[in-house]
Amino acid sequence: MSETNINLDAEISIWQEKLFARSIRRHRKLDRIIELTGKTTNLQCLEISAGDGIISASLRGLGGSWKTAVATEAAALSLNHSINEPVTLIENGKLPFEDHAFDYVIIVDALKGIADDYEFIHECHRVLKNDGWVIISEMRRVPVSLVALLQRAFDISPMAKGRRRNGYKVGELFNILKDGFDVPETMVYSNGLLESATTLGEVAQKSLFQDYYWMVKKNAEKDLLYRYRRLHSLAGLAYPLLWIFSKMEFLPGHQLLVKSRRRHWRPRLQPKLIDGRSIAEAAINTKIGTAAPF
Q: Residues 79, 59: contact at Cβ < 8 Å?
């Protein structure tokens, strides 16, 4: 690699750190993940990343041994600017690690990009130790909201950027975890006003970056630094207002964190009546306390 490219990579890393410092939403995400994870000294940890290198590098500060896996080559290339170690590429939803290798699997905004999320959670279960934990950070899907309306209007939803889903409802995450994990902790945060304002910020980012600004492409050029400077200036102007919005936590949250403990994998099948209906379906069509629908 030439000296020019080395210097450019160094400047990109510096600007990524500056932009992270101006992002209230990303800061909050990292703080909440660290709060749920705690210290990982002497533990074996696997991060499933969507390409946010600052968060990947910060998690390593918790201690222990870390590996990172990604679902796309673009995410792997982006992480090369922040962590100086090999990144594992997930192929066909399979993790190339031994059974019971990790104490923690931490999935940061990557699950919505996995084709078969249920089978991938089964893979996470396989590589976790018997008393291991999985932590999932994802966007909470609220279809009827200002955030969803803005994403549709400006075509900036996760699916518009190539992901498989626009996030998860709490119940949807529970459904893919319930066969192999207990879910003692669920955290909903980042209120709708803050998320709506940052969604408008993503509209401005769309004119500067094809994907999320923290996704660094392989053949980055000098003009990327100019775009970082522009975004940094815009973020500085918006920061005071976003800080005020971030304090309004009485409003519904749009970010989701789930911490789940591994247990024996056993599919929880929904009970069926003799006629094939589920109990819920029978309850809907039958009045409580009667023998037949009226």
A: no
Q: Which two tokens stand for residue 291?
A: 């023998």
Q: How far apart are alpha carbons 101 and 98 in whole angstroms?
A: 6
Assigned token pair, 209: 């970056």
The DSSP annotation for 101-161 comes to -EEEEEEES-GGG-SSHHHHHHHHHHHEEEEEEEEEEEEBP-SSSHHHHHHHHHT-STGGG
Identity of the amino acid at 147: V
Q: How far apart are CA 236 and CA 197, in angstroms?
A: 14
Query: What structural domains does the chain harbor?
Result: 3-263 (3.40.50.150)
Q: Which segments within the chain are labelled E, that is strand? A: 44-49, 65-70, 88-89, 102-108, 128-139, 181-191, 253-262
- Record the pTM: 0.87
For 61, which DSSP code? G
CB 249 within 8 Å of CB 189: yes
Strand duo 253-262 + 128-139: pairing: antiparallel
- pLDDT tens figures, 233-282: 999 999 999 999 999 988 899 999 999 999 999 987 655 556 555 554 45
Tokens representing residue 254 in the block: 């749009």
Where b means 16+ CB within 10 Å and e means fewer, 40-50 reads beebbbbbbbb
